[in-house]
Specification:
about 475 residues; Sugar_transporter_CS; Growth Hormone, Chain: A; cell membrane; transmembrane helix
């Protein structure tokens, strides 16, 4: 429960400020061009530093890293909540991302080494997968409630008491062996790997306002690819590699990493468009918008804890992952029928339930399979790679699909706007057209995730899926 609480805090913080952003912008006087940094400062630091955080966890010990991450995350949250200038808030969000990169792989590697019994491991990863999949929706709900009934600052302050509870619980309940003190931290690998990821995530985040053909965007993406190629080259030669290549050479893990990244591209894009659709097109309040996502959250939890966790003891992971991607794609297909007057109960609710159940079937077996059979010294970096694929996939999805939506929406408005008489209606129709076009892309990407899972993830059940975990190094 302590590990799950910490993971929930990290995941939901990627979205909890989304609904609060307009209030924070007015309060601190941010420009429209700079307000995105409240979101991207967190995702850039988080996605770019995850591999380094995972290796630090392996070197100095997971429990110690877990507690340091919690304390740092709480301090950064308090700093952000008390921000008096936009720059102070951006810096606090970047610090949150940096400590989240330390915290997240420590949490997953502690979970990996704590549960080796197939039944208990299935339950643990079911809960973890539910939190990973539903954290964004929970963040939207919490952000709406806190913003409407308190103020936007509490979207950050709320992390402080949660972190205190988690630190006390970790000190009392978690056990861990000392880190590998004889090993060295791969500094060149950290610079190359983190630099490459930051450049790519930054490039995708800048693609929406600047355009995909902007020279600075192309330069960032090219630099990111070049740095990652240099990272792979160095990892083959480094005496203590940041990411041992045998971790990603394993067919099942590679399949899980790719499936996670692709599935999250579609999921994060859907969150973005439905949030704006509910508030901008249908006129929902922040709280009502958050509540509208509640069925999706419930469906993810049910899919992870009540279906995947029970069935993974008896079936191969891809038997859950492939149908999960088909269900999620079917749910997204429902959202392609959105119009300016769509009914929530008749259209959006079925789409959310299908998508949520599908994502619940995807996340849990990915976490369990990707981290099974990893040696203790590599559990932290493997956990970090799972989280990296999720975070980078989310960043790419937000940038890519938002660009598709903006471009297609503008094209629709230009083609259908014949005069000022119906301008407001045409603009709203154009916005919805952009959303539905992007969701079509999300459907295709989700189906590609299913194809990858079906072809690459060949692990068997239950022994290979759940029973080959490393020797436990901690107890819950």
């Amino acid at each position: 429960m302590i590990i799950a609480l910490a993971q929930l805090m990290v995941v939901l913080d990627a979205t909890i400020v989304n609904i609060a952003l307009p209030s924070a912008q007015r309060d601190l006087g941010m420009s429209d061009g700079n307000r995105q940094w409240v979101i991207t400062a967190y995702t850039l630091a988080f996605g770019g530093l995850l591999l380094l955080g995972g290796r630090i966890a392996d070197l100095v010990g997971r429990k110690r890293t877990f507690v340091i991450g919690l304390i740092g995350f709480a301090a950064a949250s308090a700093l952000g909540g008390g921000a008096t200038t936009p720059t102070m808030l951006y810096g606090a969000r970047a610090l949150q991302g940096a400590f989240a990169a330390l915290l997240a792989p420590s949490a997953l590697s502690l979970l990996t080494t704590a549960f080796t019994d197939p039944r208990e491991r299935g339950k643990a990863f079911g809960i973890y997968g539910a939190l990973a999949g539903s954290g964004s929706a929970i963040g939207l709900l919490a952000g709406g409630l806190l913003t409407e009934y308190l103020n936007w600052r509490w979207c950050l302050y709320v992390n402080v008491p949660v972190a205190i509870v988690a630190v006390v619980g970790a000190a009392a309940l978690l056990r861990d062996r000392p880190g590998h003190r004889g090993a060295r931290l791969d500094v060149p690998g950290a610079v190359l790997g983190c630099g490459g990821l930051v450049a790519i995530v930054y490039g995708f985040s800048e693609a929406q306002p600047r355009g995909w053909t902007d020279p600075s965007v192309l330069a960032l993406l090219a630099a990111g690819v070049a740095l990652l190629m240099a990272f792979v080259w160095w990892q083959r030669r480094a005496p203590s590699p940041l990411l041992p290549l045998h971790v990603v050479k394993d067919r099942n893990r590679a399949g899980c990493f790719l499936t996670m990244a692709l599935a999250v591209i579609g999921l994060f894009g859907m969150f973005l468009f439905l949030t704006y659709y509910l508030q901008v097109v249908l006129g929902y309040s922040p709280v009502r918008t958050g509540l509208a996502f509640l069925p999706l959250t419930v469906a993810i939890v049910v899919g992870s804890t009540q279906i995947s966790a029970r069935l993974l003891q008896h079936v191969a992971p891809r038997v859950l992952m492939v149908p999960g991607t088909l269900l999620a794609a079917a749910g997204m297909l429902v959202f392609t029928r959105l119009s300016v007057h769509s009914d929530y109960t008749g259209l959006m609710l079925p789409g959310m339930l299908l998508t949520g159940l599908g994502m619940g079937l995807i996340f849990m077996p990915i976490f369990a399979t990707a981290t099974a059979g990893v040696s203790p010294q590599d559990s932290g970096v493997t956990s970090a790679t799972v989280n990296t694929s999720q975070q980078v996939g989310g960043s790419i999805g937000t940038a890519l699909l938002n660009t598709v939506a903006t471009t297609s929406g503008a094209t629709y408005i230009a083609a259908h706007l014949t005069g000022p008489a119906h301008r407001a209606l045409v603009v709203r129709e154009g916005i919805v057209h952009g959303y539905t076009t992007a969701i079509w892309w999300a459907c295709g990407i989700m189906l590609l995730a299913g194809l990858i899972a079906g072809l690459l993830v060949t692990a068997k059940a239950p022994k290979h899926a759940l029973g080959t975990a490393p020797v436990p190094e901690s107890v819950p």
